[in-house]
Inverse folding.
């Protein structure tokens, strides 16, 4: 297996980035097209951040994985736990904040509320054999940013950002000890678009998307693959308010796991997610006519 190549660029020309690092010529890296190499013009010198391009982080072997799924008592999480077992996972920890609601045969049930650090630490202590962490748990409060309940906006971030980060921090050493493994974050098409009555969710899912990219870089040296999943309206409790067309959660989860096995870093589940991603490069006046 090829090792990850971590290329650290000195913050100042000639600065020593530390033992084991390779110093590259700043101009060479800046012209190489890596978006992480930013010209921020601080103190009139160009500063580049760590750039990691990993040539050989191993793809996830779902078949023999020991998976842990958050929010596995219903919705996409329940499908994920079930389909991971069907694909031959050696063990699936189906976690829930109310474990008595997990009704899947063959899984190991653990109590876990991702917004409680103590609960996360207890789950990590109990599941030292995990090789695949699926950060599925999520909420939506329908809060708007300007007039919505600030506690609801905070809860969105507590769950999607801080809860996911707490899980990543607790399980990164476990994944490393078990050979690297993988993390999959259930992000959203809404990571990439704003929408009335879903803007707190948009902010939280955008933060989860950014977290996914940052953690991917940080965990590459320990050979942990980090993937993000992006999907639009899918028929779960999450979307009870919506009476328009929705995707089938079983099909969505099949696409997610196919993407993971195909070693995709951004698993785009449906057309809504593909359109949302494309919108990032569109003019906001075209994409949000109401705000034009
Ligand atoms: N369905 C969609 O259209 C859609 C689209 C894009 C992205 N997503 C994302 O996909 C993920 C799953 O969504 P879903 O549609 O399956 O939602 P869902 O049916 O509402 O299920 C959400 C799950 O997350 C759990 N949960 C919420 N907060 C938690 C916490 N603090 N700790 C532990 N578990 C917690 C819930 O537990 P309780 O039963 O205790 O509430 C439930 O098991 C979410 O991250 C969501 O944002 C969904």
């Amino acid at each position: 297996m090829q090792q990850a190549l971590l290329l650290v660029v000195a913050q100042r020309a000639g600065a020593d980035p530390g033992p084991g690092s390779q110093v590259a010529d700043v101009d060479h890296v800046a012209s190489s097209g890596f978006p992480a190499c930013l010209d921020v013009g601080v103190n009139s010198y160009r500063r580049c951040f760590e750039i990691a391009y990993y040539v050989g982080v191993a793809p996830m072997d779902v078949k023999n994985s020991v998976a842990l799924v958050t929010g596995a008592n219903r919705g996409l999480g329940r499908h994920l736990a079930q389909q991971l077992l069907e694909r031959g996972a050696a063990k699936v920890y189906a976690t829930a904040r109310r474990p008595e609601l997990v009704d899947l045969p063959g899984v190991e049930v653990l109590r876990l509320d991702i917004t409680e650090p103590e609960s996360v630490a207890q789950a990590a202590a109990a599941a030292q054999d995990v090789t695949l962490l699926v950060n599925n748990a999520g909420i939506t409060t329908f809060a708007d940013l300007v007039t919505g309940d600030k506690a609801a906006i905070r809860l969105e971030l507590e769950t999607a950002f801080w809860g996911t980060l707490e899980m990543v921090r607790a399980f990164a050493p476990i994944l490393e000890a078990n050979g690297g493994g993988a993390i999959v974050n259930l992000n959203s098409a809404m990571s990439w678009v704003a929408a009335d009555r879903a803007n707190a969710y948009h902010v939280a899912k955008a933060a989860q998307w950014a977290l996914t990219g940052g953690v991917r870089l940080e965990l590459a040296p320990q050979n942990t693959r980090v993937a993000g999943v992006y999907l639009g309206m899918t028929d779960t409790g999450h979307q009870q308010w919506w009476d328009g067309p929705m995707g089938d959660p079983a099909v969505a989860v099949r696409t997610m796991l196919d993407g993971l096995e195909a070693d995709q870093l951004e698993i785009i589940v449906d057309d809504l997610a593909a359109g949302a991603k494309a919108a990032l490069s569109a003019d906001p006046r075209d994409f949000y006519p109401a705000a034009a």
Q: What stands out?
A: The helical segments are 26-30, 75-86, 117-126, 150-177, 199-219, 249-261, 271-279, 284-287.
